[in-house]
Each structure stands twice: as C-alpha cells, then as structure tokens.
Protein 1
Amino acid sequence: MAATPPSHPTGPHSAGARPPAAPRRAFLKTGAGLATVGVAAAAAAGAGWLLHKPGNDRQLVYATVADAMREVERLASAAVQPLPPATAWNWSETLVHCAQSIEFSLQGFPAPKSALFQNTLGAAAFTLFAQRGRMSHNLAEPIPGAPALDAAAEAQAALARLRQAAQDFAAHTGPLQPHFAYGALDKAQYEQAHAMHLANHLSAFDVVA
C-alpha cells in the first residue's frame, strides 16, 4: 500500500514553499515567441530569394557538376559576357573561384569557420539551399584564405583548371574535407553544393549575340 505523502502548508509565507512558477512560464513563452519569429523571418527571407530575380541572374539550376560543366563549355565556346549589372569578377576569375571550391573539397579549406558556425548557421543555410535547389550568395566573396584571384588570368587556363577540378571530384572515392561554411558533407551533398555554386555564378553570364 502506497504511503500517503505528508501534507504541507500552502500559504505564500510557508516554510519550504516553492517560488511561483509564473516567471519561468513567462520566460519560456517569451523564448518560444522569439524562436517562432526567427523561424518566420528565415522562411520569409527564403521566400524572398525564391521570388527575387535580378536582371543579371538567369537562376540556373543543376543537379550535378557534369550538368553545370556543360553550361560552362557552352559559354566558353562563344562570346561569353557578364549580364548587366556586371559582376565584380570577370569570366576567368569566376572559373578559378569555382575551381578553388571544388579543389578545397578534396584538399581541405584553408580557413574554415568554427565548428559552432558550421553546425548551426552553415548547416541551416545548406539545408535551405538544398531544399529549394538553388543557392544565393555574394558573387564577389572569395573563399576564406584562398589565394587572391587574378583579373588578368588567361581564360583558357582558368577553364582548364576548372575542368581538371571537376574531373578530380568525379573520380574521387575517398573522404571529403568539411566545407568551410557547411561543415561535413558526403559525396552526394557535395555534388549538390558544387552544382548549386556553379549555377549561381554561371547565372550572371551568358552568350552575347
């Protein structure tokens, strides 16, 4: 037979009485409200990017690096030009930047962000981009720690470097290095990350008749 618990005084000044729970409930309610606002703001921002289409963004979408490279070859074989307003980087700089991203996924990024950033904001950004199939980022933002891009670089040499990086990635069967912002990605996730990255940059260029 279970013992009957002892009775305790319940007055506000009784010895051993617990403090009221209202402040904690108010705190939790406020925290939940702020979290809801944060999620709503993030969702609104994502929807804004989905609906936004600036004049120099063709909003290309590719599922694989090979798909993106076919567009690279099409542009490289013709009179490729940046769409107005022109991006800060020219065609050769863009190709080298995209090659660097693929190379670093195999070799290691020189200046990765903290594990905390990768596991929170970085992972959330990749999830959002992956769900909508496109990424949106500053097209003139270098990879942290990467060698500076050369505006005078020869376009054919830049193209050859990107081709080699894409081939090396396709043939790679070993472990991949954590992305500087997104953190650890498997081969399929990296495939999507590189394809989205290429698509975002290629969207700012086209063939001019």
Protein 2
Amino acid sequence: MTISTAIIGLGIMGRRMLEHMNLHPDFTVTAIWDPDHSACEAAQAIVPGAQIAADAAAAIAAADLVYLACPPVPRKAYALAAARLGKAVFLEKPLGVDIAESRDLVAQITALGVPAAVNFTQAAGAALTDVAASAQSGELGDLMGADIVVTYANWPRAWQQSADWLRFAAEGGMTREVVSHFLFFSERILGPLQLVWARADTPPNSDLCETHVAARLVAENGAVVTIMGSVGGAQPDRQELTIKGSKTSRRIADFYRDAKSNGGDFAPVSADVSDPRAVSLKAQLDDLALLVAGKPNRLATLDEALRVQILVESILSGKNAA
C-alpha cells in the first residue's frame, strides 16, 4: 500500500515534490489543488494521474497525507483542517510569519497527535547526517560556531519568478527562504540559538523584502553564529554554511555540497552527484514515509520549525522575541 497524498500549492515547490513523489515507491499523489487553475494544469501535465480537486477541502479529504506548498499565511488553516480529519501533515517552510499564530498551530496539531513535520530539505540529507555524527564523535573538536553567507544578484531568483509573493516583506525574502535552512542545520549541530543583534535593510518606502541582512546569534556553549546576506551586483548565487570546529570545520555549499578543512583549503567529502536535489528529496521522502508509519525519522519537527521561525522573524524585526 502506498501513502495517498494531496498537494496544496502547485508553484515550483509543489510541482517539484509532485514529480519526486511520483518516482517514489511509497507515495501516490491522489489529489492536487491550487487557486490558480493554470498551476493545476501545469502540475497535472507532470503526473497525469493526479486528479485536480474542486477545492482545498476536497483535496484534503481524498488523501491520508497532505503536503502544503502554498504561501505561509494560508498554510495554518489547511494544516488544521487536515489534522482535524486525522491526516498526516507535511508543511513547507517557513512554518509561518506570525509567531503567535504558529505557536497556536503547533499546540493544536500536537494535541491532535497526527504525524507532522516541516520540509527543511537538509534534515534527512547526507551532509547534516554526517556533520552531526562527526560533531558527536569529537572529530570536529570543540564546536566554535557557524558562519552563514548568502548572496544573490537578484531576488527572487530566476526560477522563483512565478512565486511573486517571495519579493514582498509580508511573506517572502531570502532570510525566510534560505537563511532559515542554515539556522535549522546550525541548531541541529550547536543546539538552540539566541539572537544577540540583527539588522535587515529593505528598500525605502516600499513593501518589498530585505536586500541586506546581518545578525549575530549565540549557542548555550557560547559558540557564535554569524549571518551575512545581500542582494545585488553581477555575481553567481552563493549559499554557504560553515560549521567551525577546533579540529575540523565543515562547509555546506548550495545546501548539499559538503567539504571539510583541517586548516587548509576545503576539500570535498564525497564526489558530486549529477542531481543532488533529487538525492536530497528522495531522502526526505524516505523519512516522510517513516513519519507517516509512526517510526523514528530525521525530519524537522514542528517545535524545531517554530524555533527557526522565531529566530527569522526576530532577525527581520531586529528584536529578540521571547
């Protein structure tokens, strides 16, 4: 028996998950829905067997697992509708943009007791799994902190242009979309982080998202995490997280490419694969099947996603949230 799945939200992330669920032996996408009918048609062209539901409620009713790839604000209502029907829920990140609303979401879903997780794409990946094992074994030495660097010529990036909400401060921006992944990774290695200071700059007199961000956070052992992000200038995308140890440091570039340094140049831990995103998504789906079956898994919990959201929204506001 495969896991019958509904996908709500059929932008780039929804269609990408649809494609990879269709390739995975444990999942069957039985229903899809998006308020934009053209998005539904584009998704159905990828997997003709996926049925376009009449509305979100019909999609939820048709499946045992609901994957929510819609923008953050409507996600809570769909997640609770699914959970109240006993459906498993897999949410895209960020968990939300309003901290109080997300606290309530986590409390309600936890009380309902359904399987639930958030799609931080590195959670089940080889890089995080191996770095965590290296940290626990002592291979890295004392954990000194982490550096997060993201730079883009343009935001949103070319492949995100259809998701227009990503360019606005209300729900979008690189801090929510990219830095959040590396904060999640950092907390898995260093433990809970506290914000010390932050600044995010947005274009004046506009509702657009941040173009520059800087922040300093600290772990319980005193390890410091620094963030630097910027948009603008002729340059390739740069997305790097460096976990710094006294013996060995690890650098994760573009989410998946893992390299190590003992003080010299960073050297790849393993050979590149032709499609690292496909490998990562396969690992996420393997663990999603474990989650639905009630088995141990590496996916991001709701509590972990809430902690990351609190950090992100605090960074964007320049204020540490209680």
Protein 3
Amino acid sequence: MNDLIAPVHLPRVCYEIFVRAFCDSNGDGIGDINGITSKLDYLQELGIEAIWLTPIHPSPTYHKYDVTDYYAIEPEYGTMDDFRRLLSEAHQRGIHIYMDLVINHTSTHHPWFQKASASNANPYRRFYWWMTPQQIETRRIGRRQLTADSWEANPWHDNPGDPEKYYGMFTHSMPDLNYDSPLLRQKVYRITQFWLNEIGVDGFRLDAARHIYPYWEKERNPVFWEEFGKEIENIKPGSYTVGEVWAPAEEVGPYFRGLKANFHFDLSFNLQRILYQGTHQNLVRRLLDDYRIFSTYNPAFIDATMLTNHDQNRIGSVVEGNIAQMKLAAAMLLTLPGQPYIYYGEEIGMLGQKPDERIREPFIWTEDRNDPQRALWIKPRYSRRATVRALSLQQQDPNSLYNHYRKLIAVRKAEPALGQIQNPNLAETPIDTTTLLTYFRTHPTHPVLVIHNLIDAPQSVQLSGEMEKYTRLVFQTSPAVITEKNTIQLPAYGSVILTQGS
C-alpha cells in the first residue's frame, strides 16, 4: 500500500460510540443518530476529532453486526436525513465520521442470503460458502480453533432441505461472504462508493478483517485488503480505513499493505497487564519491535490504539473501579504513539464486564434518574448512578476523571511530539525501575519525557544525563515536585509530562 495517498489530516484523538447506548433523542430508550448530533459540542469540548460509529444499518439484532440492507439506516436509529445532518454538523466542528462496515458476513435475513439459500442454482449462491458434509469432512474443516473474537467451534450450519451446509464463523445467523465471487466484490465496492461519495463519510472501521476468508485460506486475507485499499483510494482519495485484526503483530503486519490503520490489540492487553501487575512489562521495547514489523509492510502505517472496546471488559472494571488507575490508564493511552480511540464512557469511568450487553450499558449524562437523554435500552448492572459519577457532576469537578481526560487530550494536541500519528516517535529512557513506565516522545524541536508511576505508593525519580534537560512540567495527574537535584517526587499512580526549558 506504499503508493496509496495518506489522509491529508489525521485526527489525533478518536471516540467509539456504541450507538444504541449513547444518547436518546426521542424518549424511546434507544440511543440514536440525533442523540449523537446533540452531543457533538460535548465531544468537541472533550477534544475528539473523529467518531467511530458501531453499525447503523438495518439488522434484526440489538448490536447490528448482521446487516440486512447496506444502503439504509436502522429505523430505530433514525433516517438518512438524520445521518446527513450528523455528518454536516460533525464536519462543521472538524470531526470526522467513520462507519463500521461489516462485510465479512451478512444476516440470514439479507436478500442475498435469502436467494442463496432458496436454490443452489441461484447466482447469489456464490456469495456464500457452501459444502456438503462429505466435502467438509474430506477437507477436515468441520471444526475451527476458538479465537478471541469468536467462540464458534462448529462453523458449518444446516439449511433445511439442502444437501449443503453454509459457513458462518461467528454464528448460524451470520453467514460468511465468499469473496471468490467477482460480482460480490463489485457490489461491496459499490456500497463503499455510496457511503464515501454520495453520503460523505470519512472512512470505515472494517469488522472481522482477519476472517474475510475462512481460516483454511487465511493467507488470502491481507491480499484481499490490499485490493480493497486501492479501490477505496480510487473511489475517494484520502479515505480512512482501520481494521479489526485481533492478532499478534506478526499477523497484523501484512494488513497494513491495504489498510491505513489497524487496531493494536496486543497493546490493549499489555496496558491492562501493566495496570493489574504494576510493572512496565517491557512495553516500550515491545512497541518498538511491533513498529518495526508494521513499517516493513507500510512505512506510513497508523497504529490505532485503545484501552478497551465494545468487545472487551471495560477498563474501569479491569481496575475494579479504582479512579486513580483509570487516570493512569488514560495517561498511558494518550501519551503513547498512535491514534488513540476512547470507548464511550471511559472518560467518566463507566464499568462493565462480559457478556457483551454489560459492556455496552447506557452513558450517564446527569444524576437525574429520569434523564430523558439516557438510552436505557437495557437496565444497567455495572454503570449505575450509584457506581459511576454522572458527567454533569464530573464537569464541575476539576479533579474528576472527565477533566483528567480533557486536559490530557489538550496537551496531546498542543505538544507536536505527542500529536504525531505516523512514524511513531518513541524512545527508551535510562530509567530501569520496573514499577515506572518511562519514555521519550522524540521531536526535532519539542521532545517530551513521560513518566508513569505504576504502583499505589509514591516514588522518587532521578533525572540524569539527557533527562536533566526536561525541566518544564506541562502535565501532572496530581501535584508532583521537582527538587533542585533533578528529582521528581511522583505520587501513587501519578503521571508527568516534561518538556525541555524552564
């Protein structure tokens, strides 16, 4: 993908919205598009520059990851006019909109599958994977190894009255598409053209990118995305693409040939380990190794980073509700290289543990139990007013988690070294204490030194050598003291950002 044009502007901080749970505009208890539009000023004030929306297409499920119509808006969420207004209002504020594009599979209710399942002579039959039990047994593909993103061990499903079974890696209600069909590829590219050029979205998050081809042909996945990336660039130059490739760096790397960004799941899990073990896990060295892998496939790669997303236990629950550790998590995410994604509600400390519905509970806007904008599509179990301080309360508290996020984002955008997205500018420091995570964010004129205390006790940090130049404190979680002997007294779970000069 090295010949593809990189986006003119790369948002420095992104925000993932699970649409159903964010904000309700019409009192039906379901988050919707107009609700998001009504909160654009809030997101702009927080410092967000791009929004990833989970699927907004018609679907029979609450999560919408099984599409029935790629050209329409889920009626529960609004209309196409509502979506056009969201785009217009977001763009006026300098906020990009990325759609979740689910093209690994469809719903069984999609017209393509309805036709495919009705007759093996129908042209749409080739849009999906079909085999007889004997073919499946001969190829020894009847069972698949469980992966972090799918616990379906028996991916072949019966179609009543049909001698063939169809392949659905996630569930029987989500049949996988077969991209050996040239006609299917044409239809998918037409869908992307519609949303990019006729509607005006800024890019796509690509769901289940490592499963576009089944596991027995997985080497073909990056090849497909390389073609996809070129098609997208031809359709609308500069469009953003970010892939969900839930795998180690060695497997993720080839996807950068076609996708401009990929989510860094290894980093997500390493940050969580740091939080509950209190040691740096050799994170900087691991990241530098990952960057070397990614850059061999695309020197202009974009590392999409996150603490957690809609498929993982919320970071607030990972640290068992400890606000100080949530602040530490935010400080790590927002000072490391890459393009960070904040999962809605992380900025107010929302909680949640699997099953999936429980990590997608309603955002808490105010302390009013009858707040009409709260999307009470599900009765919350973890993120309740008794366990999570409402945004309205946190906005008034300068020491709140919300204001911690807002300040960190502002610093990230103000310091060129922190705001650099491509060509990750990360370097190790001489500090080798395992309970401190430290790194330089290099820059020709404005380098930054970042220090995180990973434990629940104060620590002293001696600045020596090159680090002695970093004397100006531009951010601190809570008051830190720099003594005359270049020693920093860092509070428990505290973070500091230092630049050169006085």
Protein 4
Amino acid sequence: MDTPFDLIIVGAGISGIGMAAHMEKLCPGQRYGVIERRAELGGTWDLFRYPGVRSDSDMHTLGFVFEPWRHEKSIADGPAILDYLNRIVDERGIRPKIRFGTRVVSADWDSGGGVWRLELETGGTINRIATRFLYLGSGYYDYDDPHDAGIPGAADFAGRIVHPQFWPADLDYAGKSVVVIGSGATAVTVVPAMAATAAHVTMLQRTPTWMAARPARDGLANFLRRVLPEGWAYRLTRFKNIRLQSFFFHRARADPAKTRAYMTKMTQKELGPHFTERDFTPPYNPWDQRLCLIPDGDLFAAIKAGRASVVTDRIDRIDATGVLLQSGQHLAADVIVTATGLSMTMAGKIAMRLDGVPIDWSQHYYYKACMFSNVPNLAAVFGYLNASWTLRADIVADYICRLINLMAARGATIATPVLPADHGLIEDEAFDLSSGYISRARHLMPRSASDMRWRLNQDYMRDRVWMKRDPVDDGVLRFDRAPAIMQAAE
C-alpha cells in the first residue's frame, strides 16, 4: 500500500469540489485526492438529466463563497452549474487529483496506524489506499435506488414509466399526454419543461406544496456586476439573498398564519381563475416542508395557457392507458413520470467500520455539524434544509482545513470528538421538516442535541459566526498520535 494520503475526499460534486478548492488555498502542503464513482464531475448535476433540470436555490448562495457566479440567470439550469464547477476544477488544478469511475466500497478505521483504509473498485478491479483524514462529500441520497412509491398496476401500463433520477435520453414525449406523479421540486421543474412540447401534462399530487414564484434573473445582481468589481458585486448579492432567505424562514416559523395568507394571496395573483384551494393550499404551514421555487412563474404560465394542469387525488392503480384515481377519475397517459422522491442514505452507502466494527450512525451525535461523536478523522457534509446546500459546505470545508492545519502544527495524527457514555445531552430534532424523504430516513441518521457542539444546526448566519469563533481545540476534540507513528519515532 502506498504512503497514506493526508485527506481523501469522496465525491466530486459541490461538496467535494468545495473541499478540494479549500485544500488548495488553505492547506497547500497537504496531499489529497478525490474519489468519484461517475465518469464526470458534478454529482447531482451530472446525474440528473430530466427536462428543465435547474437549481432550486439562487446561485449567489448555491455558488461558493470563493467563486463569483457570473451567469445572468440566478436560478440556473444544470449545464450552467456544470460549467461553473468545471471552471473551478480547471482553474485551481483540481482535476488531476480526481480519480473518476472509482467507487469507495468500504472504509475501515485502523486505530493502530491512525488511518482510514479504503477499498476502491474501478472497472471490477479492487485497489486499496489509506488516508489519515476522510471527507465524505457524497451527498445524502441514494444514487442507485430512488424512492419507490409502490404504485400498483405499473406492469400493466402500455406506455412508458420513467423516474427523473434515471431519465432516458431516447424518451420522446412530443405531442403526447403526460402524467407527472408528485408535487416537489422535481415535479414543478419537469411539468413546465415537458409542457412546452407535450400535448398536455398533468401534475398529479396527493397534497399540494407551497410554491413561490420569483424572477430567474436577479436584477440587483446584474446591475451591481456592471458598476462594481466582480467580487464586491457577488458578496453584496450573496449577503442580500442570505438575509432575505433567513428573514422569510424565521418569519414563517414565527407567524405561520400570516405567512400562509401571504403565500396564498401571491399564488392566487399568479393563477387568477385557475387557482383552487384544494390544489394550491397545503394542509401544513410554509417551511414545515421545503418551499418549491417557480422561476419566472413558468409552472403557473403553463397552467394558464392550458398546457398543464394540477389534480389533487390519491391513486387507485395504474392501468394500460393511464392512472385511475380513488375518486373514480381516470387520467389518460402515454408517459408517466414518477417524481415520487429520493431515498436518503448515509455515507454514500460505503461500508464504514471502526477497527472492523460496523458504524451505526444512529448511535452517534453530530459534532459541529460535520464530524461525529467518538469517530476519529472523519467529516461529512449535510447541507441546510432551509437554505442552499453550499452554505454549509463552505463553512465545513473551512473548519476542516483549520483542523488539519492545527493537527499538523501539533504533530497530531488523530482528532476525535469525545462524548462519554454519561454525556447528559438533551436530544433535539436535527431534521425539523416533515418532508417524506426525511421522515423515511430519520432512523438512519446521526443524532443531534441542543448543545451547539453536538447538533446539526439549521441557522447559517449563526453557524458561520459560531464556527469561526469557537476554537478548534475546544476541550471536546481530543488530539493524539497513532501508536504506529509513535513507535517509529522512538
């Protein structure tokens, strides 16, 4: 086995690229590598190829703190996001350090050697490497198996059923009737995009989702770029968008009734006579689940033009010609799109072990929103539920770089967040949304406490300040040297 890496990053999506860029800037003397199972970088943005695929957060916050977003559209499509990520990777010399087409099968912490021993699979060949620190930027959902809603009768359908996670390149839906099952971010993206050429698209939902229309272009951002240096314009726009998002989220939580009334009024204004309470007023409060962004009101425009419609009902079964509903209504379809959600997973389905013992994540607490109680030299990114994913990825990457540099300065090779068995922590809800994909996976996820050091907090502005001010050596994190290294030094 070769000399251990100082850091291995799993995943070349937003989280992994962000960490690599931070390593290049803040830890230039450290040897790192990136392992990516796909043939191209981008993660989510390379995987999803469905019509209209785009961000559901503005790119001034989904973009990195260190790299301005230059496109005119703030709500960007998949190809534009991939262009952004590829530019970062090439300008910073990261691409040669990415090992594509390689899957991390297992990772076993070796206490004696003070390293993670990784088993990698590339084209059927197994290789092994070691790394002192492991950084999981592999996201939170299963790339192989999306959520299966178990709709009866699918085998009887004479047309084609597709899931957005595996969109077929040869799917021709022009002039055809389409039923999209679901009402989340993917559904509200797919429906207007398909409606442009399909005969008609019906969005079939069990319950409505709160939707918010906003311009795809940020007028202030585009103006600032014309009159200010690029970096200043980006920082000001980012500051503005973070503040507005935080204000609206906390306002929704503090006064849900008023927020419901406001959002209902805005949707009524967008749809006019096409608005119905049954189809556009959810039974839950705004931000009990993540809001759906409607850039330039494209979904509402498709509904008003008669190219798309919304039906709220429960499915009885799929038959040869479409979807039969419990109300008795039948939706004829040539194509059915099952936008029924994702399946969450932990650690990218890597078999994780501590000295050969499998890790049960549900028995560990988050530490500083990225490490885990009594698990050494490991960090992972789980983005914000109420804001852009990258906001967390940025502050976590900065923290881990400071930790790695402190370890190097002290000659330490192991950093462990130590939590005794009699810790007395008050457990808190880390995932305080009622979304289906979260509810289905709560039993798999690490725990969270009310103590800031032991929680996955959901307040970016507070986290950013706290992560900077709270010392890395906080009395919780224990620093050691691996026994094998100590023996070699004697």
